[in-house]
Amino acid sequence: MSVDTESLQLLEDALRKTMTAVSGRQLDEALAELGWLDMLAEMPDTAIPLVFRLLGETGAHAPVINDVVLGAAGGEGGGTVPLPFAGGSWVVWDRTDEAGTTLGGDLPIHRVSVGDPVRLAAGRRALGWWLVGSSRAMLALARRHALDRIQFGRPVASFQAIRHRLAETLVAVEGAEATLQAPSDDLGCLLAKAAAGQAALTTARHCQQVLGGIGFTAEHELHRHVKRVLVLDAMLGSARELTREAGGLLRVKGFAPRLAQL
Fold it and tell me: Which UniProt keywords apply (predicted)?
């Protein structure tokens, strides 16, 4: 199912407005009313990047990763499924507003003892888009601060060190987004999630340096995005774990397959 540019823009505007207004269980219900599950079934290549990128950009959250993983396994959305987490543990992202206490305290994610193996490619790609969206939100905060903050009589954006950090961040985010647009198999999605996780961690580090002391305060938005990307990076395999896993797969294959036609 294809969507024309005008309709896609209208859909994005509606989703952004909704995510700006509500989060958590309310957003989960609002997305269902907007036809999220139908979009996921009929046009996943459009719905997944759009919804998950906007979740990152707006800072909202909803348990829709469950729907992606369940759909990839041939099941129906609307439920929950245990998901692997960094360090060999498992978690469940509940469809409630009962926040967990072990992973930052703002998400309804709870550890479980064990889970069954699930297909992870689609879920990793979805989380990759969420990480890219969060990275762009952090970069926007740092860029705005660099333009507004005056030091020694001029904006800090004019200092070379600040420019280098922002430029390196943009390159990392753009590169991660390019990898997300390329994958079509398990290895491609694995590498795309790893790239998005690494880009998000790079973004968090550089943007914190650009923002300086204000970036550490509870009043500023940055810390919420940083905590979010730490959780998202760890879910379905962290950047470090996935890079190690990819290396093992390539050693077994004995060659590096072509992942994109350039």
Answer: FAD, Flavoprotein, Oxidoreductase
